[in-house]
Amino acid sequence: MRNLDESRSRRETPIQKEPTAMDYVAALVPPVVMAIAFTALVVTIVKSQGGANKAKEDAIVDAALARVEAAQQSSKPAKA
After folding, report:
1. Suppose 23 and one of 8, 19, 48, 72 were both cysteines; which one would form an S-S bond, judging by CB atoms 3.0 to 4.6 Å apart?
2. Residues 21-43, buried b or exposed e (16+ Cβ, 10 A)?
3. Model pTM?
C-alpha cells in the first residue's frame, strides 16, 4: 500500500521544464502574423480609397440618394 501512495504523490506534482527559445517563438509567432496581416489589410483599404473611379462612384451614390429623396417627397401628401 505504501508504494501506491508514493506513486500517487509523484504523479500529482508534475515536473516543470524550463522554457526554451522554441517555446517563446511558438508563443509569439501567431500574434505577430496576425498583426502583419491586419496592417496589410488596413494599408490595402486606405490605398483603395480615391483613385480614378472616385468621381464616378460618388456620382452614382449621389444619383441614388437623389432618387430616394424624390420618391419620398412624391409619396408625401401636400399640405393645404
Report:
1. 19
2. eeeeeeeeeeeeeeeeeeeeeee
3. 0.47
